[in-house]
Task: inverse folding
């Protein structure tokens, strides 16, 4: 057939899908796969949101997809229950892991995690202990999805620069956390200059 490729669709695949194919090991293995429930502010599980994490070597991924024509907001905090062999017998214990455990984060109040959304290209900054205790709050539009990659941890010092930047960003993403840190430290100079 004489078909003309949809250039928009090809470009979208090149931007969103092709880079993930190079990391298929991070999405195909099941050893560290965890599926999470998505809790709404009212406290019930929204079955229209699929959320899972996976890890391979030193890399982690967190994928979220909203499978409905609606808007939703809520938290992912704890995995669904799954069986684990207990000892040498065939008996299995049922366990759950927190999002922090699934992403292999430090449960330290001074530890922060930086990660990137493959879809938007933005980077995010979150407190690790907050991800352990409260989970990740997220708002999703109809059929919206995120693929979070490139997780790396940073330790805050006595200046609490990461904590102050995280409070300033309020969960929002920026093109580069490193550049945002530099700009944030210079804000007392930049603000009067801009005015």
Result:
């Amino acid at each position: 057939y004489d078909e003309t490729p949809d250039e928009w669709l090809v470009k979208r695949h090149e931007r969103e899908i092709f880079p993930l194919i190079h990391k298929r090991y991070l999405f195909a293995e099941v050893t560290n796969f965890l599926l999470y429930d998505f809790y709404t502010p009212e406290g019930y599980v929204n079955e229209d949101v699929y959320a899972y994490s996976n890890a391979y070597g030193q890399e982690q991924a967190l994928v979220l997809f909203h499978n409905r024509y609606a808007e939703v907001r809520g938290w992912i905090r704890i995995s669904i229950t799954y069986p684990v062999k207990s000892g040498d017998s065939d008996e299995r214990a049922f366990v759950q892991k927190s999002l922090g455990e699934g992403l292999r984060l430090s449960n330290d109040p001074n530890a922060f995690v930086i990660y990137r959304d493959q879809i938007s290209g933005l980077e995010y900054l979150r407190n690790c202990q907050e991800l352990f205790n409260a989970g990740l709050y997220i708002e999703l539009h109809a059929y919206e999805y995120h693929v979070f990659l490139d997780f790396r941890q940073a330790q805050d010092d006595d200046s609490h620069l990461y904590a102050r930047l995280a409070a300033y960003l309020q969960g929002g993403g920026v093109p580069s956390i490193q550049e945002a840190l530099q700009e944030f430290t210079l804000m007392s100079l930049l603000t009067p200059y801009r005015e």
Notes: The radius of gyration is 19 Å. Helices lie at 7-21, 24-28, 99-102, 128-133, 161-169, 177-185, 187-194.
